[in-house]
Structures are given as C-alpha cells and as structure tokens.
Amino acid sequence: QVQLVESGGGLVQAGASLRLSCAASGRTLSFYTMGWFRQAPGKEREFVAAIMWSGGNTYYADSVKGRFTITRDNAKNMVYLQMTSLKPEDTAVYYCASTPRRMADEVHEYEYWGQGTQVTVSS
Length: 123
What we know:
It is built from no helices and 11 strands. By secondary structure, the chain is mainly beta.
C-alpha cells in the first residue's frame, strides 16, 4: 500500500513557475514508476510526466515538454514537478500517482493516487 499526498499548488500569473511535491508513505517508492497527471474542469485526466524508479528515465507529454521537469528523491520518498512558463491552459488539479510498471502514461496503468492539488494560471 502506498499513500500519496500532493502539495505546492496555487494561483499564479502566466509565465510564472511552481513546484509541486508528492510525499509518499506506506512503502518505499524505490521500485515504482511515479507519474503526474492533471484534470481540468470538464476534461478527462491526462498524463503530464513520469519518472522511472531509478530516476534516469523520464517521459513528458508534448504539451509540457521543455517547460516541466519531474524529479524524485527515493531516500526521502518524494517526487517533484517543477513547472515553468506556466500558461492558462495548464490550469487543472494535478495528481501524483505510482505504478509498479516499468513506464506508464495511461491513467489505468497507475495503481495509487493522491488527492490532488489545484494549479490555477491567470492570463
């Protein structure tokens, strides 16, 4: 069992930066792929970024590539999403998730989810 708690969301202006954090407890994250997803009002939850357990391999949605960076600290059981050059279309609830799969970018592939943190980007 893994419990995930996100933090770091907020209201920012377009062009600003935010760093989201995901704290895990219950089991070590070391052997899980960690992902960030987001869901805007009226839209389906979508993949944002993922990082493999070793931290060496990362994967990003095209919409955030070059602007967002996912990192992890297995010793602290933490995962981070550094977001820069934020746009109004990045407004959504952001979720942290984990999976024992090697790499995954689909909602159904993830086993554990946090409660989400709201990110709002004003124009």
